[in-house]
Amino acid sequence: MIPTTILVPVDGSASSQAAELFAAELVNHGGRFEIEVATVIPPRTLPYRRAMVLARTSSEEDAHRAEELLRQAAGRIQAQLTNDDVTVVEQLVEGESPAEAIVQESLEDGTCKLIIMGSRGRGGFGSLALGSVSQQVLFEASCPVIIVKG
Question: Cβ distance 114 to 6 under 8 Å?
Answer without folding.
Answer: yes
